[in-house]
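pinned: reference chain
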Amino acid sequence: MNPRNYSVYLDKDRCNGCTHCLRVCPTEAIRVRHGHASILAGKCIDCGMCIRTCPYHAKKARTDALARMEDFKYRIALPGPEFFGQFANLESIEVVLEGILELGFDDVFEITRGADILAARQREILQSNPRRPLISAACPSVVRLIQKSFPELLPNIIPVQPPEEVAARLAREQFAVRHQVRPEDIGVFLFTPCPSRRTHVVTHPGMERSHIDGAISIMEVYAAMSSRKHPAATRAKSCATLYGMGWGAIGGESTAMGLNDYLAVDGIQDVIHVLEEIENNNLTDLQFFEGMACKGGCVGGSLVFENPFVAKNRLRKMMEGMPRVRLDGEAARVILGEGNDVLLDNPLEPLPEPKLDENLLVAMRKMEQIDQLAMKLPGLDCGSCGSPTCQCLAEDVIRGEATELDCIFRLKEYISQSARELLDVSCNPEEE
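pinned: its structure tokens
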């Protein structure tokens, strides 16, 4: 398993071994051993909760530097709705688009255009697919969570590319035709609000390849733009609609699809609770489930600058004057072009966690040992041992990655027992 396929990583020089990240990780992917945290790649979904929580900024995300656009002769930027929510007192979206061009990009293609197309196609898929509820594929962290922890729900995920991939392909094709240049000379760069979108670019689940050449942190782009003066004139023209812009916050995707019978939930822990309900067939009356790992939606990503509530409010104000235009399926297909669609190339596959052992009998025996050891532990899930729960510690011990005495309660019992034995020996010395 290549750790480069994951965006979140640890800066050991900054980590002091606290357990803040241990407590918030939704998939129990973090351990603290020998004074430092470590991330178990097989469990991580790149949600960025640890980045947001770490008080020492020891958790970071691998993203592309803004300078990487120099690798291409032509460069196209892909800003999403959440990017526009970073700017205060914004006179118009065109001001931001012009600012992006001044950074050295040759074109800007708004992800909202891909979102409008997706909304139209998803309405059609929803009508033809009887499975309920269908689950949004817009949040890569939620998709990866389902691949790892809820593989039975993979058929429920609506089998489409995320909006940035749809936008990236259109951006490259249209720029190449308009300027009569080779598509391979064009670099398409996503302004990402979170680590998981960069991970999607690298791993592109269900796709033969990604249409995006790099993912640059919104925080880096915002820093570069905020140090410049707002342009006096603008060459760019925004094509954003009210419904496309709404995808930047929770509930926007469902609203863009024109749905009433849906559930929109933000925050990865709450998403997990809903997925458990879906897995137990308790929500079959719903048409659609829109789950976003970050609070507020993409405006709450761990790689954005602005407070998510402030950014969401700015989006709301921007949307007030935007056209209320919904594409239908036919219009979406015309824009995509003949032979093109938003559907995935291949079915999504499960991402199982590392096995206890390749031998099934040995693995079953180890599972019994884990359960037996977990019964001996206090069940407080305090995290003092460096594992998030007592059950995790039991598994770590059986895997050979920890010891039973890492539990401070078991250690206390061991020390007390040893002290009693020493006292018995000292009070009852053997006669020579």
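why pinned: The mean pLDDT is 91. The CA atoms of residues 397 and 404 lie 6 Å apart.
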